[in-house]
């Protein structure tokens, strides 16, 4: 860790942790969605929307702190990228739930559960990693594992696409389901972006 003579604004660490904890909440709502009936899905979507708004508030708080801080714990660009990528995750998860409700999807294809399980695990790892930004210790396993999970998510996504185009679904249903599984894949990509940003920060601070 580099020795610094100047004080640094430390509230960023707490705000990043709060943002990541909110993502865990979102991932749990995704899990709830899997076995829910239509009425329950509407209620889950409302709670997910509230979680997404809380995520927006957390992101705006980070940006406000960034704009008002003379000294930051690490590069301003990295703070911006990390906050934005965390926000993207919540946006994609909320979009997936909203699409399921709007499209009135009766049954999600096999494989979506695996997608969501990967996202839930990535959410847990991300929330566990954020406090480590204070010291930059023991973060290597985090970004390695998230990258492994993203590769796993890619494989699941490809299998889901093959399943959707195997002739079992009509064309309109394929369009609806493909959009949902694509958005879930984008959430997995956003988790990888967070991990890559953390790796960049750790390398610069080492």
UniProtKB/TrEMBL annotation:
Pfam family, one: PhoU_div
Record InterPro entries: PhoU-like_sf (IPR038078), Put_Phosphate_transp_reg (IPR018445), UPF0111_domain (IPR052912)
Coiled coil: none
Similarity remark: Belongs to the UPF0111 family.
Protein name stated in the entry: Phosphate transport regulator (Distant homolog of PhoU)
